[in-house]
Specification:
signal; 0% strand; mainly alpha; membrane; disordered C terminus; 402 residues; Mesothelin; binds 2-acetamido-2-deoxy-beta-D-glucopyranose
């Protein structure tokens, strides 16, 4: 009853709106499934603007589309263009709806999604995978029995360029059996460019363990992308991650989140094997994790790396570690000492500055912002009698009120 009333009201509002209005966003995007199905099918155009639909809302979208009174017509009449016109709503299509769509159109659409997969962000990839999985299910409705199952061809370089693995190899078992050693050795990159569900990634991990029983070489580790996240801390402690480029590639956030234990282990392993932390690596490791390095590891950071890392956030580090970073930064930027640039380069590390250096800055009339001031070591600030005075009075109103 309530849904019907809401639908009535919304119909009136939406009928008055000739274009999908972003202003109606909250109203439309939080709509109950019952309201969606009760409204005029043109509601679909408004739903396209919602950043994310719930499972129940997606069901409702399918119900509306299956009624065939939409501008898209019945799913059995859809072609590639229709699927493209559906835009973000295509991501809501379920197996029932997809199985009605012409196979060729469906596959052409799957191909167009797979083609852009490797350039998509993490969230987008998850949505693409969901859709491709629904498409795979629509293409292979019943689980086949292994006896009458026709085995697809082995995965070769050519196959990789022509097929979508999750669709053409319809079970993780088939995928396992068709992955040759040679394709894993020479074309791992292309295998991993494909949209692969977690199930398929587990298969890949298993096969890689068989191909490289004593561990993958550094150059292969570099290619793992999202697969790398499936390795345990124990496994990571055995990795041959020897180059900074590999560690940097592995830490790329668009391939998914590492747990802090995994990330720490990965970095520790790299250092244990004699790797040096470079500027880009420090940037990639970032904030909290930088502070997780132990003092011995921080001691080994070459000052040039701090110099080329850009601004690092060490605000959550212990005082000892801040002191270490400060002295590294001081060495890195020594040639600029006394210039205005020097202060800006040193600013992120001033939390580790001793009273003496703070005094120099204060006496040189450096214009310090409040955040930097508050991040200074209070013990050192206390010893630097002129610091508070200089920084307060140089701004008339004082640092605290800026
Ligand atoms: C797809 O959505 C329709 C309409 O909500 C529903 O009837 C059907 O059961 C759904 N199919 C699947 C496989 O969830
Ligand atoms: C790391 O840096 C040290 C000192 O700068 C250097 O001797 C060593 O060769 C470097 N190691 C690697 C793997 O680049």
């Amino acid at each position: 009853m309530q849904a019907a009333l809401a639908a009535l009201l919304l119909s009136a509002v939406l009928a008055a709106a000739t274009e999908p209005y972003a202003d109606l966003g909250v109203l439309v995007c939080t709509m109950e499934p019952g309201t969606i199905t009760a409204l005029h099918p043109s509601i679909l155009e408004h739903l396209k603007l919602c950043p994310m639909l719930t499972g129940a809302q997606r069901d409702a979208v399918n119900a509306v589309l299956l009624k065939s009174s939409t501008v898209y017509g019945h799913p059995s009449g859809w072609d590639l263009e229709t699927l493209q016109h559906l835009g973000p709503l295509a991501l809501a299509l379920n197996q029932t709806t997809l199985s009605l769509v012409d196979k060729a159109a469906r596959e052409a659409f799957a191909r167009s999604i797979a083609a852009t997969y490797s350039t998509q962000g993490w969230e987008q990839r998850q949505q693409s995978l969901t859709l491709l999985t629904a498409m795979a299910a629509a293409s292979h409705p019943r689980p086949k029995r292994s006896a009458d199952q026709e085995m697809p061809e082995p995965i070769t370089t050519r196959v990789l360029s022509e097929s979508i693995l999750v669709i053409d190899y319809d079970s993780p078992e088939q995928f396992y059996l068709c992955l040759s050693d040679s394709v894993l050795q020479t074309d791992l990159e292309h295998v991993l460019e494909q949209p692969l569900t977690t199930e398929y990634l587990w298969v890949l991990k298993k096969r890689l363990q068989e191909v490289y029983p004593t561990g993958m070489p550094d150059a292969q580790l570099r290619r793992l992308g999202p697969l790398s996240r499936l390795y345990t801390v124990q496994e990571l402690s055995q990795w041959q991650v020897t180059s900074a480029d590999t560690l940097c590639a592995l830490l790329n956030p668009s391939d998914g989140k590492w747990s802090s234990a995994q990330k720490q282990q990965l970095i520790a392993r790299f250092l244990e094997l004699g790797g040096n932390l470079t500027g880009p690596l420090l940037q990639q490791i970032g904030g909290i994790f930088l502070c997780d390095l132990n003092e011995e590891q921080i001691e080994k950071i070459p000052p040039e790396a701090i110099g080329s890392a850009g601004e690092l956030d060490i605000s959550s580090c212990s005082q000892n570690k801040k002191d270490q970073f400060y002295s590294k930064a001081q060495q890195a930027f020594a040639s600029q000492a006394g210039t205005k640039v020097y202060y800006f380069q040193m600013r992120p590390y001033l939390g580790g500055a001793p009273a003496e250096d703070l005094k120099d800055l204060a006496e040189n009339g450096v214009d310090m912002d409040i955040d930097t001031f508050l991040a200074l070591n209070p013990n050192e600030l206390q010893v630097c009698s002129c610091c508070a005075v200089c920084w307060c009075y140089s701004h008339g109103g004082g640092v605290g009120t800026r």
